[in-house]
Amino acid sequence: MTGEDSELIFKDGLRLYNDKNYTSSRECFERALVGDNANPEYHLYMGKVLQQMKETNKAVKEWIISVELYDKKIKEHYDNPYYHSGKGEALLDLALFLDLDDDITVLSLNIYFLLGTNIEREMSDYFEKKWELFNNAIEEFNTAIRLDPGNPSFHRNKALLLKLLGELFDRKMNCVDEFYFGDSLSMSRKMYGEALNEYRTLVSMNPEDIDSYENICHILYNLGQYDDAINLCSDVLKTHQDDPDMHFMLGILMRKLGKYDKAIEEYDRALQSDPYGPNIHNNKDKGVALNEMGDLEGAMKEYEKAISIDPDHSLAHFNRGNILMKLGRYEEAIREFEISIQIDPSYSSAHLNKSIALRKLGKKEEANSELNIAVNMDICILMKRYDSN
Which of 279, 273, 252 has its CA nearest to residue 263? Predict the structure, then answer.
């Protein structure tokens, strides 16, 4: 097989990957690699598809190979911005899916807490690894932008990374980062601010870039700047009345402000524009709004609609399980949490809520087993559990 043949096969794989046909795209990437095993982009996307198929360990190996191959390309062709951007993507994927070392187990963490031992060294090593990878990825995206400042894909990659960092400081790390990163709020605001600059650059390049507008709105939402986000959504909708994502974002904002009727109205508009599209979250979030209004039956119907459109939507099954728990239907709730876990085995909240439902049924041993799985996946659960004791 020639390099040209491999490139054509790889492009077919990219098309299938974007269509979420992961099994077929994986086959294409494997065939492309047979023809050209030294192509870092092929390894990068092989890792991406393996991650989508829940084969994280294999994905990580592919990303490591990709970084090493991009390094070789950069040494030979430093002024090629695509090599820097590709390496940045591989580093970003590695950072996102880096997990705790195997020796930092639930048992050892519990012992550290019970004995009053400081786990700062173990946890700081973990976060330092993630932080180094993120920083290296930012450096590569910055180099790509310096070499080709007019390429929107480079700005988009950097913006995505900065937005993800802001969210990580907001959510995942904020239970322990006071020991390692200082003030979580100031760090998240810094990352969000830099991400906003990149998305605004993208909008200046293309005023019709709805995806960037949506991300700006989402960052403003995370920063608590709800009025600014609502104004931006409303301005965009003046010229893009049928855009489902902007209606969806406006619905999220209205729900946050407790304006549930307006939120549901916006979700319905989003669904009218895209009733069976990939943005399945419309039904799920409409269900959340109804749930918060106390309309459990209405919420249940929305989750069922979401599941009928996409039976493999882990979060819709999870939310349906939560409604069943509220109704005291614990066995049915457990089945929904199990489906959610089967679809996404890394979903710690599904394991945690399954544990709660099992405890309600008096199945303490099974409940503890699920709790330990959840804790293994999310150190924050352990710390919250410890704080509550």
Answer: 252
Last residue of a domain, one of 310, 331, 353: 310
Domain end among 310, 335, 368? 310
Residues 344 and 305 in one domain: no
Q: For tokens 């904020």, what's the residue?
A: 174
Instruction: Tell me whether residue 94 is in a domain.
Output: no
The total of other beta-carbon atoms located within 10 Å of residue 246's CB is 25
Residue 297 lies in a domain: yes
SS3 60: helix
- Same domain for 327 and 294, yes or no, is no
- Reading the chain (389 residues) residue by residue, the pLDDT tens digits are 555 689 999 999 999 999 989 999 999 999 999 999 999 999 999 999 998 887 888 999 999 999 999 999 999 999 999 999 999 999 999 988 865 443 333 333 333 333 344 444 555 566 677 788 899 999 999 999 999 999 999 999 999 999 988 887 776 544 544 444 446 667 788 999 999 999 999 999 999 999 999 999 999 999 999 999 999 999 999 999 988 889 989 988 998 888 888 888 888 888 787 766 544 455 666 677 777 777 888 888 888 888 888 888 888 899 899 999 988 999 999 999 999 998 887 788 888 889 999 989 999 888 888 887 776 665 555 444 433 33
CB 93 within 8 A of CB 63: yes
Tokens of 314: 């882990």
Residue 41 lies in a domain: no
Q: Is residue 281 part of a domain?
A: yes
Q: Name the residue range of residue 229's domain.
A: 225-310
d(CA 78, CA 89): 17
